[in-house]
Specification:
The structure is a single chain. With 94 residues, the chain is α+β, with helices and mostly antiparallel strands. The chain has helices spanning 6-13, 17-26, 48-57, 61-93; strands spanning 2-5, 31-36, 39-46. Strands 1-3-2 form a three-stranded antiparallel sheet. Strand 2 (31-36) and strand 3 form a beta hairpin. The longest helix is centred in the last third of the chain and has 33 residues, at 61-93. The protein is rod-shaped and about 85 Å long.
């Protein structure tokens, strides 16, 4: 079993330290607390099954961008429809 610090785990998975701490507090990650130089240091124990679960839970940035792009396209299409309706109404007035 390999141990890694919270900061290193966050860097490895491209997460914020805050999110990693939330996962530790909720019990999603196994941890070991060891006292080094008078300070208590928390290490995350790397386990294959837990790592696979965490990987499934992490949404890649690219997918987030794609989702936001799709939402923006829908908004823009709706706006174009409204503008066309308004244009047709103005044409009828003239």
């Amino acid at each position: 079993m390999q141990r890694i610090t919270i900061k290193a785990y966050a860097v490895k998975h491209k997460l914020s330290i805050f999110n990693v701490m939330k996962m530790v507090k909720s019990g999603k990650l196994k941890t070991d607390s060891i006292e080094e130089n008078g300070k208590e240091v928390t290490y995350i124990v790397l386990d294959e099954t837990i790592e696979k679960e965490v990987q499934k839970g992490i949404v890649p940035i690219e997918e987030k961008e794609r989702a936001s792009e799709k939402e923006m396209i829908k908004v823009l299409q709706k706006e174009v429809r409204l503008l066309r309706e308004e244009l047709d109404a103005l044409k009828k007035r003239l």
